[in-house]
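Two proteins follow. First one:
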Amino acid sequence: METTLYEFFAPGKGQITQVAEKWAQHELPVAREIVAKAVSEELAGLLDVSLVGIMLRAWSKYELVRKYLASNETVLVPLLTHTIESTHEPSLDLTQANIVIKRVQFSVSLEIEVEGLVLKIGQGRIQQIEAGNFTASGSLDCEGVTVAEKKLRPLNIPASYRI
């Protein structure tokens, strides 16, 4: 369950090259190849964001969860059916002689629908995610061109997931 945004979208090198060529048509073919190679090599690092981390940050803003995070109590907090929406806008600066020659802008949108999860909170942190279901969908764009879209089928967390 410790999946990153990069693993979630799993864009293929061919997809990245095709997109780079699409939005860099006005550049020389060599430049397109350099940009596509740089993007494919650096994209995993740019999208090294945990899906669980996204959910934990969202839940930590929920008033009831914050209340228990601020205490030393160990409690189980049931979560109602809800949707977590998350957007990210990483960019990649391509440089030559320490001068930015091109900035490649990405846009990531993610929607996670959660149903019936229970959080175990103790010692000021979320310790476990108990049984429940979730689905996730989203898109990864590069310079306004969609690189990948994904929708997971509903996933069941049968027991618990220790954080």
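Second one, unrelated to the first:
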Amino acid sequence: MPEHILFLTGKLAEKSLHKVLESMQPTGFTYDIRQVGISVAGLMTADLVRRRVNDIGQATRILVPGRCRGNLDGLSAHFGVTVARGPDELKDIPQHFGHAGKTADLSRYDVLIFAEIVEATQLDIPGILARAHRYRNDGADVIDLGCLPDTPFPHLEEALRELKGAGFRVSVDSLDPDDLRRAGAAGADYLLSLKEDTLWLTDEVASTPVLIPAAPGDLDSLFRAIDRMERQGRAYFADPILDPIHFGFTESIVRYAEVRKRFPAAPIMMGVGNLTELTEADTTGINALLMGVVSELRVSAILATEVSPHARTAVREADLARRIMFAARDESSLPKGYSGGLTTTHERKPFPDTEDEIAELARAIKDPSYRIQVSSAGIHLYNRNGLFTGTDPFDLYPHIRVDGDEGHAFYLGVELARAQIAWQLGKRYRQDEELAWGVAVERRAEDLESFKPPGSTVSHKLRMKR
């Protein structure tokens, strides 16, 4: 017997919900739609549902709007069936039920992220630990301590001790054999980077070496170093070195392919900073493309940096990109539909409602409260006095009537500015919510089990009335 779902909604969304569910047919479930007597579905609460829904019919599950606040476990106990939140936008219901896009498992990955603290020599121990914790929270598996040429690192051993004591895996990156010897003796897990003529270090320390060519592009020397490590049964990573664009980038990608062809099972590392740091473009796209190459070549680890201000979320981006690429490769699929986290400035489906649908909704409004929506045609502002459309908030100013209410005026200014940005870039806009910027900006966690406190404009108005 198919599942029977009761969809709860508001007056303004009821018609659209019917259309969306009808467009999904056939489905693996049957359904009813119940309008609970409020205009805006997003204002639904668990207490309101308990008061207004007396009969759930044959429902085996109840779906409420994604913004519904309150304790749904209590509702589930009250009705005797599961009560769950659907998506925030009713136009996303097909995807919620798997009719579009993919329900992705992004918990899996097979690429280690080494996050380099490039200026470790210049930071004190608390500074190094703080950076390490941030990188780990962003997805890093290994913390890399960068050594600068001709720059003393007197607290290297102490930094290693503190990081290891805090549970970090640690690598040290230097071309100075003395730095690497000290790091290995102090317990570094990995050493970057050993050339053919410094492999003697592997006889003195237990750290896993990252091997690089003796000279730029010298794959033969890298092959010999790999052969030596494999004969000795030593773990290692091989890094042919990724070069910047116009300084050998394409040829360096070819080198990675050659290493993989020569050594099918070799663990390979790719330092991605020469692309993310040295290309003036959004790093989300660069990381997505590079992690696609990493996935195809079965590269085992990357070295990421966040030196340039425009690359300040590179570790977080690489973490999401490796998960997306793993899932897509596992399903023999294109890397689409798994997550929107890397589309920070644009979205695949930015405007869920058409201009005509918004106009139809606006005609049903009978109160003075302003609603704001965005379509491909522009920004739509409406209340009972009419629907007004423009591409610049200043175009809409003549139609706004909030005389004497500075809090409301401020609120509308903020919301219209957000709406303009969303229209210009092609992003989802939802009134009363900050724009989403994918992995580039961490969103504050929101507890839908509780209710939002009054915003600053409302609080100010209440204080002024006292």
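SUMMARY FIELD: Residues 295 and 329 are 7 Å apart (CA to CA). The mean pLDDT is 92.
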